[in-house]
Automatic annotation (TrEMBL):
Protein's UniProt name: Uncharacterized protein
Organism annotation: Acanthoscelides obtectus (Bean weevil)
Superkingdom of this protein's organism: Eukaryota
Length: 113
């Protein structure tokens, strides 16, 4: 969704629509004799989009792990969880499964108490 917004902003800039960029709008209105060339600003937005995409691409890969920490009592596929942990955090798969099993058992015992 974020990438869709930035593509939308890029198209706005290409079209000369600067409503999402108030400082830019103000500068353009202060210099009405100079034509506005959106090329540099479109490149900046494109670069920001690519940087954002690269910086956060790993979040999809650890979604299962992150969701578990948000809600440790949720039902999960232990194999999928352990595989995600081993691939992304260089942990031993057997140890991860055992630790997850122990944590789950302890969490349910705590809830039932």
């Amino acid at each position: 969704m974020i990438s869709d917004i930035k593509v939308f902003w890029q198209q706005n800039l290409i079209d000369g629509d600067t409503r999402h960029f108030p400082v830019l709008s103000e500068r353009i209105s202060q210099s009405p004799l100079e034509p506005y060339d959106s090329k540099d600003h479109v490149e900046i937005v494109s670069s920001l989009k690519n940087n954002f995409k690269n910086r956060f691409k790993g979040f999809n890969e650890i979604a299962t792990v992150a969701q578990f920490f948000v809600s440790p009592l949720m039902e999960i596929d232990i194999q999928q969880f352990a595989t995600s942990v081993t691939q992304n955090f260089s942990e031993d798969i057997v140890a991860t499964k055992m630790e997850l099993f122990e944590q789950t058992k302890n969490s349910y015992a705590w809830v039932m108490a």
